[in-house]
Design brief:
There is one protein chain. This protein is mainly α and 108 residues long. It has one domain.
């Protein structure tokens, strides 16, 4: 159970980092590209966000396997990564006792 909690905590942390990079890309880099004519912000922030997104997806898949969750659970987690401020929703859901229970119930 400690390994599962550790993986869930790692997923939540990575979700926050990936989510903040997504917000930076949307709220800072994109306006700088179009309003200030500085496309290098999007190139740098986009690359960083892309790497973090891939790491988040891999980590979510690892957690799915570790807790024995369904594909529906994984899709719910991945959906939060494409919604701005989705990391807040994911964090609240992952902190609730229903997150692990839901995953275990769906797997049964």
């Amino acid at each position: 159970m400690a390994i599962v909690n550790n993986r869930m905590r790692q997923l939540r942390l990575l979700a926050w980092i990936e989510g903040i990079s997504y917000l930076f890309l949307l709220l800072v880099a994109m306006p700088m590209k179009y309003w200030a004519g500085k496309p290098e912000y999007v190139q740098i922030a986009g690359m960083i966000h892309g790497v973090l997104f891939v790491l988040f997806c891999i980590n979510a898949l690892q957690v799915k396997i570790a807790i024995g969750a369904t594909t529906r659970w994984l899709l719910r987690v991945l959906l939060t990564s494409v919604i701005p401020f989705g990391m807040v929703l994911l964090d609240r859901w992952m902190q609730s006792p229903q997150a692990t229970e839901t995953a275990e119930t769906e797997a049964a």
